[in-house]
Amino acid sequence: MMARFKTLLCGVFISLLLVPAGQAQPFDQTPILMPMPTSLVQSAQTLALNKPLTLSLNGLSPQRSAFIKAYYQQQFADFGYQVSPVTTEAALPIVVTVGDLQAPAHRLPQLNQNEQYQLSISKTGIVISAPADFGALHALATLSQLLYFARDSLELALLQIEDSPRFPWRGLLLDSVRHFISVAAIKRQLRGMAAAKLNVFHWHLTDDQGWRFASKAYPKLHKLASDGQYYTQAEIKDVVQYASLLGIRVVPEFDVPGHASAIAVAYPELMTQVKPYQMEDGWGVFEPLLDPSKPQVYDFIDAMVAELATLFPDPYLHIGGDEVHPKHWQESKRVQAYMGKHQLATSADLQAHFNAKVQAILRRHNKKMMGWDEIFHPALDKDVMIQSWRGKASLSQIAAQGYPALLSAGFYIDQPQPTDFHYRNEPFDTGLQRAHPLEESERIQAWDFTMPRLKGSAVTGKLVLVSEQNTLRQAYIQLNDQPFKQAQLDSHLIPYDAGMSRLNATIDSWMGPTRAQLTLNSESGLSGRILIGNAVYPVTGSLDPHFTHADLTNMPFLSAMGAQAQRNILGGEATLWSELVTEQNLDVRSWPRLFAIAERLWSERTRTDAEHMYHRLLPVSDFADAISLHHKKQFRHGLSTVLAKHNSPDNLALLTRFAEQLEPASYYTRHHIKYQQGLYHQNAPLTQLVDFLPVESPALISLHLLLKQFEQGQIEALRAIHRALSVWQADYPQLEKILANTTHVQTLMPSMIVAREINTLSLSIVTRCLDNNPFKQAESEKLSSSLWHLQTQSNELVVASGLFAERLLALCRDPV
C-alpha cells in the first residue's frame, strides 16, 4: 500500500520536470547539494560505487569518532549501500582526517570554531580533510547528500570541494513552552540541523505558558507551572551531549523580566504585583513582570543562572527581554520610588538598569548575555549579543554601534512564508535604495492606503509613484513607520496615466513577500488587494495632494550597511514558535525549507538564484525523508487522520492530490482567524488538514518551475502543465462524493469547489496558450477578475493554485 501511495503522490510531478532529449534541463550539471559549497570543481569522470563502503576516521575526538562512525555507517546502509565495518582491499575507502592527530579530549563546539573542510572524490576513493572535528562533520554531511543522489546510478562524479561557512552562527530556535516537544523529537531536529550544517540550537524553555526545565533551587517552577511537562536535568544534559557530538551548540533561553507568568504562578513574591496567578494558556503578551527593585529577584536570577551553567556549557545564555509591557511597573509605588532613587526616567531605562545587573550576574558565572532587540541599550557592555526580530533597520543600528548581532526577522518559520522569501533574506543587505533624483520631465504622485488585519491595528502605508510621459518609472512603498522600499514592478504593467491606472508592485516586508495589486483612480481613489504570500487582504486609499518633490527627497530610507556593521553581524537564526505547532506537525513546518535558510547563512552571498534553489529543494526534501526527518510522514499521517475510518488507499490518493492544490495561509493569518474564533490558546486542537500541509505545495513549486521553462521557450513544459491540471480535473467528481459522505472532511467542500473552478479556468488558459491564441486585454481582465473573486482572505486554508493560475494568465495574454 505504501509504495502505491508514494507513486500516486510523487509520480506525476516528478515526471513533469523531465523534458524530452535535446532540450537541456537547467542546472543539469550542478550536483544536488544544499547548502552549496564555496568551491566545487567537477570532472566528467566518475567513481563507481560497486564495492562496500568503509569509513575511516582519524584525529577526531574518541567520543565523537565512535558516535559519528556508527551514525553515518547506518545512514549509508539506509541509502542501500553495502557498508564494511573494517577496511579491506575489496572495499571503497572513505578516509576522514582531522588536522590534529593527537586524539584530543572531546571538543565542545564554540562560536567561531574552524568549520572548513576539503572533500576529494578520485578513482581510488573519497578523502576528507579538515583542521577540526566540525569541518569533518560538515564534509560527511555533504558526502551523505552526494551518496543519496548517487544511489541509483551507483557512481559519483570526480570532484574537489573546498568549503567553509560565511557566518559562524547558524541557528534554529525551538519553542518548547507553548507546546511541549519531546526529547526524541528534538534529537530528530538536531540530526536535520547537522545535515543542513546549522550549528546552534536555541532552546526556548520559559515563557508565560510554562516552565520547562526542572530546577533544584526553585522546584515550584516545574511542579506548579509546567502541567507536568518539563525536562529533567538528566534529559537536558543528554540533549546537550547529543547536539555536541553532531557539532551543534545549545543556547538556553530564560526569559526575564517579562514573559514571566509561569514564574508568577510559582513565586508570586518575585513579581511587581504580588497576588495569586493562574497558568496562562492563551497566546499573546501578558502583564506580569519581575520587580527590579527587589533584591530577592536577583537572588532568583543568580540561582537560575548557576543551575543553567551546570547544564549548558555554551558561553551564551539568552535572557529574552522582549515585549516588556510596563503597566505593572508604572502602577507600582515601590518601583517608581526605585526609579527615582536611581534616576531612571522611563521604563526602558529601568529595563536597561535591570539588564545591567543581570549581565553582572551572568559574568560571575562565566556567561555572556544574549537577548532580543529590546535589551539593546548603550549602558550594556559590548559583548552582549542582540538577536533582531524587529527587522534590518534594528539589526543595522545595533551592529553599527559595535554590538554583535544576529538576524531572525525574515527567518520566522512558524509563519507560512515562501522559501524564496527566506532565501533572499540577506543579513548584510538592507535591500533598499534611496529615491533617485527627479528629472525635469518626471512627475510624482502619492497615495495613502489602509490594509485592515483580522487582529490588531490596520497596516497603513504610502505609495509614491514616479512617472515620465505616462510611463511609470519607479514606485516606492512605506508600511506603517518602516522605511520606504523601492518596489519591483510587474512586467505586465498597464500604462500609467493621469486618470486611472493599474499597478502590480512587490516588496519584502516584515509580513513576508508583499504584492500590491491596485487600481488608482483620480476620482474614486485607491482600491484593490495586497497579497502577503498567498493571503489576500483588501486595501483602500486616497490621493495625497500635498506630497511634493521635496517630500520625495526627504523620504526615510535605510542607508547601506557599512563594513564595520557587517563585521558585527555573526549570522542568523530561524525561529519556530509553537502556537500552531505541536510534535505532530513540527517537521512539516521545518523541513525542507530549513535547508534553504541554512544555505543563505552558509553559502556565498552571490548565490541568490531562487529557481536553482527550488530545483534542488524538491529532491533535498526526499533526502530529508531518507535521513528520517518526518515532514512527509507527518503529512501522510495528517491526511489519514482527517479521513479517519474512510482512510482507504484510493481515498488517500485523492485527498493527497487535492492537498497539492492547497497551502496554509501565509503570515499570521491563521493566528488572527483563530483569535477571532476563540481558539487562540494552548488547548485548541491542531488536527485539521491545514495543520499538516507543507508551507509550500511541492506540486505547485513544480508547476511554477515548469511555467518558468515555458517562459524560456520550452513548449513541452506547458503540455506537462496541462497534463497535471487534467489529473486534478478528473479527480473532482469522486472527491466531491468523498467530501460529502465523510464527516471529518465535509468542511473541505468549499475549498474543493473553489479549487475546481480555478482549475477549470487554468485549463482553459493553458488550452488557449497551447493553441497560440493569447487572450485579448478585455478577456484577460475578465478572467483575472474571476480569479480574484475566487480568492479571499478569510480562510486558514488557501487554494494556492489560484496564484499559479494568475501567473499562467499573465504569460498567456497579449502584451499591452
Automatic annotation (TrEMBL):
SUPFAM superfamilies reported in the protein's UniProt record: (Trans)glycosidases, beta-N-acetylhexosaminidase-like domain
Keyword flag Repressor: no
A cellular-component GO term for this protein: lysosome
Swiss-Prot/TrEMBL keywords: Glycosidase, Hydrolase, Signal
Source organism superkingdom: Bacteria
Domain Glycoside hydrolase family 20 catalytic, residue spans: 167-450, 561-604
GO biological process: carbohydrate metabolic process; ganglioside catabolic process; glycosaminoglycan metabolic process
Entry GO MF terms: beta-N-acetylhexosaminidase activity
Beta-hexosaminidase bacterial type N-terminal domain span: 31-163
Keyword match Hydrolase: yes
Active-site residues, as the UniProt record annotates them: 323
Residues spanning the signal sequence: 1-24
PANTHER family: BETA-HEXOSAMINIDASE (PTHR22600), BETA-HEXOSAMINIDASE A (PTHR22600:SF21)
Family that this chain belongs to: Belongs to the glycosyl hydrolase 20 family.
Name this protein carries in UniProt: N-acetyl-beta-glucosaminidase
